[in-house]
Amino acid sequence: MFDGLMWCGKLSSTGMNPDSCPAWDECDHNPISSFWKKASATFAKSSCGIVKVMLNGSADGGVARKESILRTVEIPSMNQNAVSEIQFWIMDNVNGPDKNSCNTSSVLELKQYIEEHKLAFSCVDNYTPARFLQCMENPLDPNCNICKL
Fold first, then answer.
1. Cβ atoms 78, 72 nearer than 8 A
2. Which reaction does it catalyse (predicted)?
3. Under 8 Å between Cβ of 94 and 144
4. 9 pairs with which residues across the strands?
């Protein structure tokens, strides 16, 4: 609902100036990052039970950067008495590549970070029900064959 929304003020007036918004990393309190951090904290504080997090296993680098919203806002905001477990689904693109999985160093480091916050952790590589959703666009792709999953 809020993807692509831009709202920035003008220094000389109370009007909006969507053409000169600072980028996410240009200042600590820019309107876009402030909004998403607050929304993410609120969402994380209200989470309970098993929290499922889908991450891109085909992405370059680790699955969750140290400065990511997941690490800096969401995990610290979760209530350890309400959240029984954080379960990661490391999903590769249908045709790969497989760059990250449950046993790669970035996921294991993230597991340690989660456990430091007194939250339980589990991980599933290419969770089959999520793979079915990925295959909806191209169900005849050989990697979408149910018998091979």
1. no
2. NAD(+) + H2O = ADP-D-ribose + nicotinamide + H(+)
3. yes
4. 16
Place of tokens 């029900």: 129
> Could you give the count of Cα atoms lying within 13 Å of 17 in the half-sphere of its Cβ?
9
The CATH architecture one would assign to domain 48-148 is 3-Layer(aba) Sandwich (3.40)
Question: Mean pLDDT, to the nearest integer, of 34-63?
Answer: 92
Q: At 38, is the secondary structure helix, strand, or coil? A: helix
Whole-model pTM: value is 0.79
Q: How confident is the model at residue 6 (pLDDT cuts 50, 70, 90)?
A: low
Count Cβ neighbours within 10 Å for each residue of 86-117 and write b for 16 or more, e otherwise: bbbbbbbebeeeebbbbebebbeebbebbeee
Which two three-digit tokens encode residue 18?
Answer: 């969507």
Q: Which of 38, 46, 39 is nearest to 82 (CA)?
A: 46
Q: Nearest CA to 83 among 38, 44, 53? A: 44
Q: Is the peptide bond before 97 cis (omega within 30 degrees of 0)?
A: yes
